[in-house]
Amino acid sequence: MNQLVFVSLLPVVFLIAAGFIAGRAGWIRASAIKDLSNLVFLLLTPALLFRTMSQVRIEQLDFKPVAAYFLAVIILFTGTLLVQGFNRRAAVLALANTFSNTVMIGIALIGLMYGPQGLVTLFTLVSVHSLVLLTSATVVLELAVAHEQKQGASSELGSASRHPVATVLMAVKNALLHPVPLPIIAGLLFAQTGLALPEVIDKPLELLAHAFGPLALVLVGVTLANTPVGRHWRQALALASVKNLLHPLLVFGLCRLLDVRGLPMTVMVVASALPIGANVFLFSQRYKVAEELVTASVVVSTALALLTLTLVLLLVGQAA
To answer: Which tens digit of pLDDT belongs to each residue from 113-130?
Structure first.
């Protein structure tokens, strides 16, 4: 198992390092990151998700591992709020402690290590990951805003806030009409028809899907090269440690408790060990809180993941 871990992680490290060098050398400018991100997120990701799920029958899906994953999320999210207090900053930090980069890094890593079977398990999580976490975070943040406004502590958000119900409905709509869950749902629906994709459609989708992993990982390296950590590195390291180590340890323990074993357990634990997802930064921007800290935390968490993922993979390898 140790050899499998290092052999599987080395391509990930090399691709991220290649992107980092390209970013530092100026071969890929910072201004191009958004366009590359759109290419990966809006074109390559849906192609991979749809093609993979178009071959999966619903009866093959197992939501028990996902239940273990989200139980750990609830514990960690609630624990963060209890420690930090009920406010916008605490809600954003709680999201940072629980929201994994399941798409840009997770799909590439799981695909390289565990192939299509591992991806089906991951996509079962991905299909509800953003919908559940981002909608829940929106509810908590809106309640925190209302609480702060009542205490006169967030007047800067007064003109931008909307009714909590309207915000939650908008969050649900945006989470469903999204480049991640939408192709998963469409692919599953197509699979239930029993039809096969015509070669003229399947081949381009296959080529796009194969391009996803390498380009996504190179993009991570480019982003790291162009994002300063600054004076928040100590707090960022603390947040990254919770996300990269405590989160997977909780998921591992709950999987054992709920008798989730084998590949499903491994994929859930690896998914929880992934670094902080970029959506957390978007929330910090929207609610004007902890923006620099969240940015630094995403960078530190991603860099730290090269070490912590190795440790987590060794742990689940010994337990498998």
So the answer is: 888 889 989 988 887 786
Q: Mean pLDDT, to the nearest integer, of 255-273?
A: 94
With beta carbons less than 8 A apart as the criterion, state whether 113 and 310 touch.
no
Residue 218 neighbours by CB distance under 10 Å: 23
**Helix ranges restricted to H, 192-260:** 199-225, 233-241, 247-257
Range in 10-14, 146-150, 313-317 the model is least confident about:
146-150
Structure tokens at 161: 């806030």
Q: How many of the other CB atoms lie within 10 Å of CB of 25? A: 9
Tokens of 155: 């007047």
Tally Cβ neighbours within 10 Å of residue 167.
17
Amino acid symbol at 209: A
Domains (range + CATH), the chain: 2-319 (1.20.1530.20)
Q: What are residue 227's phi and psi, to 5 degrees?
A: -120, 115
Note the pLDDT tens digit of each residue in 215-236.
Answer: 888 888 888 888 777 778 899 9
| C-alpha distance across the termini of the chain, in Å | 10
Average the pLDDT over each of 84-98, 243-257, 273-287 and give the range with the smallest value: 273-287
Please name the residues in contact with 24: beta carbons below 8 A apart, sequence gap of 6 or more: 225
How far apart (Å, rounded) are the C-alpha atoms in residues 106 and 235?
Answer: 24
Residues in the chain: 320
The answer to whether 65 and 196 are in contact (CB under 8 A) is: no
Q: In a 10 Å sphere around its CB, with 0-12 CB exposed, 13-18 middle and 19+ buried, how is residue 249 labelled?
A: middle
Six token digits for residue 288: 């004007």
Non-local (6+) Cβ contacts of 97 within 8 A are: 76, 77, 80, 239, 242, 243, 246, 247
Angstrom distance (rounded) from CA 184 to CA 135: 18
In the structure, what pLDDT confidence band is assigned to residue 298 with cuts at 50, 70 and 90? confident
